[in-house]
Amino acid sequence: MKLVWGLVVILTLFSVVNSAPPTCYSRVLTLNKEIMESLEKLQKYRRTKHCMEVLPKMYLDVHNSCVMTKLRDVMYILENLPTPQCREKPRIIGLKRKIRSLYTIINKVCYRDLVFFTDDCDALETGHSTPRQGEEQLQLLKER
Predict the structure, then answer these.
(1) Where do runs of H (alpha helix) occur along the chain?
(2) Among 115, 113, 100, which Cα is nearest to 31's?
(3) Confidence of residue 66 (pLDDT cuts 50, 70, 90)
(4) Which interval of the chain is the signal sequence (predicted)?
(5) Fewest beta carbons less than 10 Å away: which of 2, 48, 94, 110?
(6) What's the rounded mean pLDDT across residues 66-75?
């Protein structure tokens, strides 16, 4: 009986630990990952590949201060795709919802909770961030 009771207590504690609500930051990171995976799939999927050709290359980084502008631009492009068939595809509609959710969460829910480590807008298109000028000068001073 004690063994069964102990097992029930352990399972209850385990379920309570796993049922904690996500933080704002964790939700942003999760949505960021989902959007990147969706973009990858849509660019490879035969039925949506031609629709995704109008989108610029995009590497989302929620720690880049330019991410809001990039999300807004991509939402605009997705809402104004060249053909109605592309705009009405369920997977593209799902991607638009995820991007809109991420934009809203960063802009309203997590306002001032996120820390932007870089302001390299080109990194959102290339995937490679270059250090800031001030950081380069600081590095040179440290080396001397």
Answers:
(1) 2-18, 24-44, 49-52, 67-79, 84-87, 90-104, 123-126, 133-143
(2) 100
(3) confident
(4) 1-19
(5) 2
(6) 89
Tokens of 116: 């932007």
What residues form DSSP beta bridges with 64?
Answer: 118
Q: Tell me the two tokens of residue 25.
A: 């930051």
The closest alpha carbon to 35, from 78, 86, 87, belongs to: 78
| Contact of 95 with 28, CB cutoff 8 Å | no
Residue 50 and residue 104 in contact, taking contact as beta carbons nearer than 8 Å = no
Instruction: Tell me the three state secondary structure of residue 59.
Output: coil
Angstrom distance (rounded) from CA 95 to CA 37: 10
- Average pLDDT of the chain? 80
Query: In whole angstroms, what is the distance from residue 42 CA to residue 32 CA?
Result: 15
Q: Give the residue extent of every domain in the chain.
A: 22-126
Q: What is the pLDDT of residue 65?
A: 83
The per-residue pLDDT for 97 is 95
